[in-house]
């Protein structure tokens, strides 16, 4: 029951947060609409922030898994050892990541056609996001989903307020990205419960075992695959598209990516639960949550495709036929990608490492195909659903074969 309540509550508030982000994005799009390409730059800059954050996202996913795993076994010593070790690791990783990001800032920015001012805004947003992500990982591992949901709503409110005031006065991509940076500061509230997580007097056992390091490597492949599947197309669009085409494409992506984002809490709750328990009762709840996740993907895509014209008019204040046409293939691709992500995260939580690694490899192959073939909006939107569909079929076939082998071995 607790799993159900947490999943439903977080999903409901995430829907509210999604509407808030939709409103914020609409405000930014309208304020930046007079300058062609600025809205597209602000959207793809967020994809670049996520690219720089990949190493710490890999660590965070491992932390979530092992916090849930140690809590389910009441292994307080290893739990506290994990938390203390990751706290120190995050500090040095943030310092090192900042140095690496500063070195790569100009060459990568030049490759993806980003301006220097926007790159500086990306670096600041990335640094704030690293600490915010660590706090979120701790709370997800502790199964504090209600707290995360409430803070998410607060962050959206901050983002809307900042964006509505500042982008009206300064209609640039840098200021639009800064709205996300400021909203991330809401996650500092998580450190209010710091003492509930870290018990400094408790005995500690170092988590840095061979098993833990192996899991971090596999998690790295899974997180990278998720990035390439979900947002890798944004960097491709920034490299090849300009002006009105870039803006139209990114308006379509704002809607399409909302499909998996709105039901993602169900998947995260499932991942945390699966990481901690594989008992029959818990497994039933986990499968129900996955079914709801899949149904949500399908319903979200159907609503978006049928009402895309009205939604874009509400979003921009005027129709945009170019973006409306892009939404259809993009939505289909997002449903298939969302299903791939479910298989990948379930496999990681279940420690089916071969499938998790395959998911990461497919994500990289998917993004490579987009980069090679998606040089126009039409070409990119043709390649995306095809490659996503092939990836899902390969992933499911390999998962079924692996499951069959396990059943025979048992």
Features:
410 residues, mainly alpha, 17 helices, 85% helix, 0% strand, globular
Name the beta content range. Answer: under 5%
Task: Please bin the fraction of helical residues.
Answer: over 70%
Query: Cα distance, first to last residue?
Result: 31 Å
Q: Please tell me the overall pLDDT.
A: 83
The total count of helices amounts to 17
Approximate shape: globular
Order of helices and strands: HHHHHHHHHHHHHHHHH
* Estimated structural class: mainly alpha
Cα Rg: 21 Å
Total beta strands: 0
The residue ranges in which pLDDT falls below 50 over 5 or more consecutive positions are none
* Main sheet overview: none
How would you explain this protein's 3D organization?
- With 410 residues, this protein is an all-alpha fold.
- It is built from 17 helices and no strands.
- The chain has helices spanning 2-32, 38-52, 54-72, 76-111, 116-141, 145-169, 173-184, 194-197, 210-230, 232-240, 243-256, 258-276, 280-306, 308-316, 321-349, 353-373, 377-409.
- The longest helix has 36 residues, at 76-111.
- The radius of gyration is 21 Å and the shape is globular.
- The model has no long low-confidence stretch (mean pLDDT 83).
């Amino acid at each position: 029951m607790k799993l159900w309540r947490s999943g439903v509550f977080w999903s409901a508030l995430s829907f509210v947060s999604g509407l808030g982000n939709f409103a914020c994005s609409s405000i930014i799009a309208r304020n930046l609409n007079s300058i062609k390409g600025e809205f597209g730059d602000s959207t793809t800059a967020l994809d670049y922030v996520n690219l720089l954050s990949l190493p710490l996202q890999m660590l965070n996913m491992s932390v979530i898994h092992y916090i849930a795993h140690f809590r389910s076994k009441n292994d307080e010593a290893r739990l506290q050892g994990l938390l203390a070790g990751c706290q120190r690791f995050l500090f040095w990783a943030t310092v090192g990541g900042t140095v690496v990001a500063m070195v790569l800032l100009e060459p990568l920015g030049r490759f993806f056609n980003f301006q220097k001012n926007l790159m500086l805004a990306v670096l600041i947003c990335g640094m704030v996001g690293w600490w915010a992500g660590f706090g979120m990982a701790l709370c997800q591992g502790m199964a504090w989903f209600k707290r995360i949901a409430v803070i998410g709503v607060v962050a959206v409110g901050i983002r809307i307020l900042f964006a509505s005031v500042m982008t009206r006065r300064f209609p640039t991509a840098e200021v639009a990205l800064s709205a996300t940076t400021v909203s991330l500061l809401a996650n500092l509230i998580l450190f209010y419960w710091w003492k509930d997580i870290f018990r400094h007097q408790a005995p500690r056992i170092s988590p840095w075992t061979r098993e833990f390091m192996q899991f971090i490597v596999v998690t790295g492949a899974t997180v990278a695959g998720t990035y390439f599947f979900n947002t890798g197309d944004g960097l491709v669009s920034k490299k090849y598209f300009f002006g009105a085409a870039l803006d139209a494409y990114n308006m379509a992506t704002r809607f399409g990516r909302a499909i998996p984002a709105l039901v993602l809490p169900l998947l995260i709750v499932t991942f945390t639960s699966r990481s901690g328990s594989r008992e029959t009762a818990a497994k039933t709840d986990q499968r129900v949550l996955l079914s709801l996740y899949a149904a949500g993907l399908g319903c979200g895509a159907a609503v978006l495709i049928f009402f895309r014209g009205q939604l874009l008019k509400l979003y921009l204040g005027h129709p945009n036929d170019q973006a409306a046409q892009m939404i259809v293939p993009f939505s289909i691709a997002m449903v298939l990608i969302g299903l791939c992500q479910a298989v990948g995260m379930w496999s990681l939580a279940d420690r089916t490492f071969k499938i998790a690694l395959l998911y990461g490899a497919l994500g990289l192959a998917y993004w490579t195909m987009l980069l090679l073939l998606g040089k126009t909006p039409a070409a990119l939107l043709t390649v995306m659903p095809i490659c996503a569909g092939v990836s899902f079929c390969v992933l499911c076939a390999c998962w079924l074969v692996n499951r069959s082998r396990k059943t025979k071995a048992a």
